[in-house]
Write a structure and sequence with these properties.
alpha/beta, Rossmann fold, three-stranded antiparallel beta sheet, 8 helices
């Protein structure tokens, strides 16, 4: 099965992609991970990506597309994959379709994990990270009443990415960018929307049902 999975920041798509990857026995391809791997491995495209990142610039679509194209050629992607975090814009979706067409790949489902902005905001602003061991917690879900890590006693702090102003800005950017992407895949009869709120396994069950439709 070949799946594209997307959703707003903090919806849990990375977590769900890993679970589905294990359940369906297909590889999880996260765009950020393969970009970092290409840079670490010193591939030609990885070197190109690094020149932009070193200047603090966004990596151009054609470079990211090339890295994804190389990743899809690897043996573990032959039986299927979950593409997580890409495409994010309509031009990326159109470029990715050309890659798929050239490789003879047919996408089975494009899944959009949906979440209400207020619920997402409440979830992310409650997230804390331990300065000492790096563990991540949710103050509400993990019932943490002080600023100490339950594992090591280190100080818990809120990352800049988890502050309300930043979250609202990221959510707005996501909504503006993905609305045309959703329309694009809906027009191809590939899009399914799944409620991304709830316990992890409940969301997984919804995703599994949507993929079986």
């Amino acid at each position: 099965m070949r799946i594209i999975l997307f959703g707003p920041p903090g919806v849990g798509k990375g977590t769900q992609a890993k679970i589905l990857s294990n359940d369906l026995k297909i590889v999880h391809i996260a765009s950020g991970d393969i970009l970092r791997a290409a840079i670490a491995n010193g591939t030609e495209l990885g070197k190109k990506a690094k020149t932009f990142m070193d200047r603090g610039e966004l990596v151009p679509d054609e470079v990211v597309i090339g890295i994804i194209q190389d990743r899809l050629k690897e043996k573990d992607a032959a039986n299927g994959f979950i593409l997580d975090g890409f495409p994010r814009t309509l031009p990326q979706a159109e470029a990715l379709d050309k890659v798929f067409a050239k490789a003879g790949i047919k996408v089975d489902r494009v899944v959009s994990m949906e979440v209400d902005k207020e619920v997402l905001l409440k979830r992310l602003t409650a997230r804390r990270v331990c300065r000492k061991c790096g563990a991540i917690y949710n103050l509400s879900a993990d019932k943490i009443e002080n600023s100490k890590c339950p594992k090591c006693g280190g100080e818990l702090y809120q990352r800049d990415d988890d502050k309300e102003e930043t979250i609202l800005r990221r959510f707005e950017v996501y909504q503006n960018q993905t609305r045309p992407v959703k329309g694009y895949y809906a027009g191809k009869k590939l899009l399914v929307e799944v409620d991304g709120i709830g316990e992890i396994r409940d969301v997984t069950d919804r995703l599994s049902r949507a993929l079986r439709q």
